[in-house]
Amino acid sequence: MKYIITYNEQAKDLCFMELNKLNKNFDEIQALSNEQSLINIDLELNEFSDIIKNMPIIFLRHIFLVDKIFAKPLNQSEIINLIINNLNINNSYSIQYLSNINFENRAINIGEISEYLNNKNYILNVKNPEQIVSVYETELALMVGFGSSKTNLSRFKGGMPHFSKKQQFVSRAEYKLIEALDLCDINLENMSFACDLGAAPGGWTKVLASANIKTHAIDPASLSPEVLKNENVQHFRMTTEEYLRRFDHSNFDIIVNDMKMDCSLSSKIILDFYDRLNAGGVVVTTFKLAKNFSYKKVSEALAQLTSKYSLVLARQLFHNRSEITVVLKK
């Protein structure tokens, strides 16, 4: 099966190492960009998607199955017929277009295709489609595939989310938490009590408190004045170890951790807070990756966590840099 995959350009070797371990017939057919490749792997779409989530395959961010390749010059009506034959008219759709060529050289008009489908009563939903038509154009060909946000690993093209920038952000780190919550379909509206470990300057605390969640922000360092203004925030100016010794709060709905520390230490802290989390509660934590980090050490840290928690996600997301995001459930 042919797929187009997306990864962080600094982690391509790690991504390919994981895929080689997964399937002996894995092969890169063509490098399409610094972050995308056309590959061959002997796995059906649903199986491949589930393995990525459950093994997990950490350094693979987005996939789409290539159902058909059209050689150029293109006949747009053939592409429209393919799309119509593969879409359910009763479910919403989105066409996600990527290319490695200049705009003026593009041979397909996505706007015209969407207009045609809309006139045929297909339901366009760009933000949260039930069906995704993935299109990748190169100088010589057009590759088209059909999937969903579940099978493709993200509702955004290439796994590149775009969130509103209207509000004032305390730090770029806020995007990391927002992306993880969105990807895992975690609804903060159902939560009332949160804990942010190593909270300063307060980006993740702000995300939680702004959702009207009472939040304990633990960090010896100062929080942003904007964060402290929120009545849902209580700042504990101490280490997490001191907090555990001094306080016995044990009914958190969500615990988050973005501290800059070795992944084994980060995992230990999350395990130390296990009894403080409600049944069904969620953990979002990051593993910081040193320049010459050990993949084995990352795997061991995940194994430690999943000895008690259920794994929801372990992946290098779009807003991650030299780190991965881990989401767990109790």
Describe the structure.
There is one protein chain. The protein has 330 residues and is α/β, with parallel strands linked by helices. The protein has helices at residues 12-22, 45-54, 76-86, 110-119, 149-152, 173-183, 203-210, 225-228, 240-246, 263-272, 295-306; strands at 2-6, 27-31, 36-40, 62-65, 68-71, 93-99, 131-137, 141-147, 193-197, 214-218, 233-236, 252-257, 277-288, 310-315, 323-329. Strands 11-10-9-12-13-15-14 form a seven-stranded mixed sheet, with helices on both faces. Helix 8 links the parallel strand 10 and strand 11 (233-236). Helix 6 (173-183) crosses helix 7 and helix 10 runs parallel beside helix 11. It is globular and about 70 Å long.
Radius of gyration: 22 Å
Counting DSSP E segments of at least 2 residues, the number of strands comes to 15
Main-sheet strand order equals 11-10-9-12-13-15-14
Strand-residue proportion:
25-35%
Question: Main attributes?
Answer:
globular; four-stranded antiparallel beta sheet; 330 residues; 11 helices; 15 strands; 30% helix; alpha/beta; seven-stranded mixed beta sheet
